[in-house]
């Protein structure tokens, strides 16, 4: 999905000349990657029993999954944000959009750490085509997407405001304020999401295991 989205964004830019599409690539990819982590437990299927039988605590489960997603997610978001802007923008713009993308990814991973422990929805089983939608998956997955998107939109309002101020004024100081704020807030929300998600995980573990095993 990620290469397809990047290719589509570049193609639309070449067709329309709209540079905002290249500026939006990094944050949009970060949004999608972070949201995809909301199904991390569901994709475990029978392997999730190992977490239950070994008594893995909620904080370790949440932090481990976030770390795994960040290992490839952070570099990928930086690359997607930087490369197009080195062609059509400036080094300053590339650095700020990369920081903004990382902040969006961390924010979405923090939300996913809570949602994936509390709202399990059916996903393709091992061996099934990845595009195959299991019965009953669409409604619940759309609900998770809607809720996480609404919450994320509210949480990202400060970044949107700072981005508008930066684009209107063109002042370098607002660029660096935006980048630093996005990353620091993302780290804070990620830590908060892991903590809240750990409590949800431990409180609902029997129900979560039943839902995962029944898929």
What would you say this structure looks like, in words?
With 215 residues, the chain is an all-alpha fold. It has helices at 2-16, 20-36, 48-53, 58-88, 91-118, 137-155, 157-169, 172-203, 205-214. It has one domain (2-214). The longest helix is centred in the last third of the chain and has 32 residues, at 172-203. The model has no long low-confidence stretch (mean pLDDT 85).
Could you tell me the mean pLDDT?
85
What is the alpha-carbon Rg in Å? 18 Å
Secondary-structure-based class equals: mainly alpha
Poorly predicted ranges:
none
The number of helical runs is 9
Provide the β-strand percentage band: under 5%
Domain count: the total is 1
Give the overall silhouette. Answer: globular
Number of strands: 0
Distance between the termini: 24 Å
Q: How much helix, percentage-wise, in residues?
A: over 70%
Strand count, sense and barrel status of the largest sheet are:
none
Order of helices and strands: HHHHHHHHH
In short:
The protein has 215 residues and is mainly alpha-helical.
How are the SSEs placed, and which strands pair?
Layout: H1 2-16, H2 20-36, H3 48-53, H4 58-88, H5 91-118, H6 137-155, H7 157-169, H8 172-203, H9 205-214
Helix pairs in contact: 1-2, 2-4, 2-5, 4-5, 4-8, 5-6, 5-8, 7-8
Give me some keywords for this one.
80% helix, mainly alpha
């Amino acid at each position: 999905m990620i290469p397809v989205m990047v290719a589509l964004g570049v193609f639309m830019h070449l067709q329309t000349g709209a540079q905002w599409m290249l500026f939006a690539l990094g944050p949009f990819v970060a949004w999608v990657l972070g949201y995809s982590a909301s199904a991390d437990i569901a994709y475990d299927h029978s392997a999730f029993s190992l977490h239950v039988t070994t008594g893995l605590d909620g904080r370790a489960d949440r932090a481990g999954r976030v770390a795994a997603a960040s290992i490839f997610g952070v570099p990928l978001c930086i690359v997607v944000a930087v490369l197009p802007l080195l062609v059509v923008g400036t080094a300053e713009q590339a650095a700020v959009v990369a920081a903004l993308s990382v902040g969006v990814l961390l924010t979405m991973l923090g939300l996913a750490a809570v949602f994936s422990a509390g709202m399990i929805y059916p996903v393709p089983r091992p061996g099934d085509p990845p595009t195959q939608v299991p019965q009953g998956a669409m409604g619940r997955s759309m609900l998770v997407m809607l809720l996480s998107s609404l919450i994320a939109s509210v949480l990202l309002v400060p970044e949107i405001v700072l981005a508008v101020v930066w684009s209107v004024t063109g002042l370098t100081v607002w660029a660096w304020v935006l980048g630093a704020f996005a990353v620091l807030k993302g780290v804070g929300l990620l830590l908060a999401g892991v903590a809240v998600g750990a409590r949800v995980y431990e409180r609902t573990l029997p129900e979560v295991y039943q839902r995962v095993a029944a898929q």
